[in-house]
Design a protein that fits this description.
With about 600 residues, this protein is of the alpha/beta class. The chain has 15 helices and 30 strands.
């Protein structure tokens, strides 16, 4: 994700990992039954659509609405980059839904403090020249900043604009954005609609205009450059039609000038005001939209042991409080990243990351979807018995010619196991928090980037995605991916085409020692493992691999909080012949001959 720092002003950070043994449990209890996945609810049919399935399908300039799920995959949510092309939205939703996607997360923009010229023009971030994006914001022949200060001083000579903030978006807002319409307003300039908002610089947000006139004080001017047509309404309409939940981005916090990986404490109050205004407007317009799944806070931070006063945590807590007040029941989603590289002083072990997870949960965010960080090379996909093996060739540009154990504190699976345990502890303390996995759909690549804006990030392949799913799938309730735009759509065939063409390949995520009646055996949990699948079991020192078949599926209820499409498959196997403490590999092959990309590595308890 790091290349988007330049593209959209997002922040990106770094975390760490420690290897832990996976001991094959015996007869793990199943706490809840798993029902068959339901078909996503659809919005009411378009009146112009045919009422008969055999009739002519509804079409428009962007093509036909096709809401079939043809190739369901383990990943069920994707990030999208904003676009001005309405047909692109449609095509993306169609393609995402075809592979079983039910969640879309919007990339967003940041609130920025800006200097202004003597005549009130907003300067670029560097402060050297006027920013053309805000040049057309003019009222009564003067720049909007000057007009705002003029109106404030007319109300009370002691008023002044003490600081100016800017925020850009492709959304359009209603009157719910304004608290004091006499001094806050829309300014239409061609295709851009500017919103002039005022926030007292003491961090308050008055419920009326009385204080503007009654006492002089400083104000932060927030100048929003927006659109005439609302992109969020369009996305929610598509979400209703396809049965997809949309997570729009909340405003990104201003960055600390001295440490850009942290939110600026000075700008937090102003961000809080802008967030509150936007959420109030959303409440007026979208309170009953079923496709509004929640909100994404795009300010990333490295997941590690953090103090409660961390400024970015303060942003999360503030925005959670506003969402609870204005849109109760809609969670905030955050996606911190991991960095497991041993050679770096700021990396973190799995245990340190677990503490960071707990700190995030205490802010009230509802969904924590840590980036698996394999796409950036900050964490590796390997098992405990592979610590002595050389790192994946695609990661050597990041960690060098070394082994997994020397390069990383632990593997992806180690980190998610510790975070799952942390989540359990936080739920027991009353924090309603979910653990998702954000699987990065790219590779370190300076030679073959997907697009100019992706920098040193190139496309990956489905085999690597399947491997990542195997590593995280036991510990999370949902798997999403950064990101659809570019990484799933670049190249020929594209990664999305690979996923669709390879639908149904087995992806095991867990194994449990599970006797049935008088037979010893194993229950595998995962995706697309039907009756008749072949299971090959191997271990060091074994004379001949054991080969058996899956003889039953969904024979036992699953534990709670696993991804919706995960199922169980059982096969007979006598564990008495396996020496205690031995690492065993379990490879699954579908009846059509396609083998899982990754074998399960399990160790029999002594």
């Amino acid at each position: 994700m790091r290349w988007l720092t330049a593209f959209l002003g997002l922040a990106i950070l770094a975390t760490a990992v420690v290897a832990v043994v996976m001991v094959l449990p015996r007869g793990e209890s199943a706490s809840t039954a798993r029902s068959t996945p339901s078909t996503p609810s659809q919005s009411p049919p378009d009146p112009s659509a045919s009422a008969s399935p055999s009739g002519t399908p509804y079409t428009d300039p962007c093509g036909t609405f096709d809401t079939a799920v043809r190739s369901p995959y383990a990943l069920t949510g994707y990030w999208l980059i904003p676009t001005t092309d309405h047909c692109t939205w449609r095509k993306q939703f169609t393609a995402i839904h075809e592979v079983g996607g039910d969640t879309v997360i919007r990339i967003g923009w940041g609130l920025q403090a800006r200097r202004t010229s003597e005549d009130g023009r907003v300067l670029e971030k560097e402060g050297n020249k006027a920013d053309p994006r805000y040049a057309s914001c003019v009222e009564d022949g003067v720049p909007c900043v000057e007009a705002a200060e003029r109106d404030l001083k007319a109300a009370n000579p002691g008023n002044r604009v003490s600081w100016t903030f800017v925020y850009r978006t492709d959304e359009a807002f209603g009157d719910g954005l304004f608290r004091c319409p006499a001094y806050e307003r829309r300014i239409v300039a061609g295709d851009t609609v500017f919103y002039r908002l005022l926030a007292p610089d003491d961090g308050t947000d008055d419920p009326s205009c009385d204080n503007v006139r009654n006492r002089g004080r400083g104000y932060h001017l927030i100048l929003v450059a927006a659109a005439k047509e609302d992109s969020l309404t369009e996305l929610l309409d598509l979400g209703d039609r396809f049965g997809v939940k949309v997570f729009p981005a909340l405003p990104l916090a201003p960055r600390d000038p001295a440490q850009s990986t942290r939110a600026s404490e000075r700008g937090t109050d102003t961000l809080t005001t802008l967030t509150r205004r936007i959420l109030q407007d959303y409440g007026d317009r979208f309170a009953n939209r079923t496709s509004l799944g929640g909100f994404y806070q795009p300010f990333e931070l490295q997941l590690r042991d953090m103090k409660a006063e961390h400024p970015t945590l303060a942003v999360y807590a503030s925005q959670h409080q506003i969402v609870e007040q204005e849109m109760p029941g809609k969670p905030i989603l955050v996606s911190p990243y991991l960095d497991a590289r041993k050679r770096l002083p700021f990396s973190a072990t799995p245990q340190e990351v677990a503490k960071g997870f707990e700190a995030l949960a205490r802010t009230g965010v509802g969904i924590i979807a840590p980036q698996d960080s394999r796409g950036t090379g900050k964490v590796g996909l390997f098992w405990p018995d592979q610590r002595g093996q050389r790192v994946d060739e695609r990661l050597r540009s990041v960690v060098g010619e070394t082994t997994n154990g020397d390069a990383y504190h632990g593997s992806t699976r180690d980190y998610y196991r510790e975070m799952a345990a942390a989540r359990t502890r936080m739920v027991e303390q009353g924090y309603n928090v979910q653990l998702w996995a954000n699987v990065e759909a790219f590779e370190p690549s300076s030679d073959e980037p997907c697009a100019a804006r992706t920098g040193t990030r190139g496309r990956t392949d489905k085999e690597r995605l399947d491997t990542a799913v195997t590593q995280v799938g036991r510990y999370v309730s949902k798997i999403v991916s950064y990101m659809w735009s570019d990484f799933f759509t670049c190249g020929s065939p594209s990664l999305s085409e690979e996923v669709a063409r390879d639908a149904g390949r087995p992806i095991p995520v867990d194994a449990v020692h599970r006797p049935r009646d008088i037979q010893d055996g194993v229950e595998i949990r995962g995706y697309d493992i039907p009756v008749g699948s072949t299971v090959t079991i191997t271990w060091p020192g074994q004379e001949t691999p054991e080969v058996t078949k899956v003889t039953g599926v969904d024979l036992e209820a699953l534990p709670a909080d696993l991804p919706e499409r995960v199922r169980t498959a059982w096969f007979p196997f006598n564990w008495n012949g396996v020496p205690p403490g031995t690492w065993v590999r379990i490879k699954v092959t579908a009846p059509d001959g396609r083998a899982a990309a990754e074998s399960l590595h399990v160790r029999v308890g002594s």
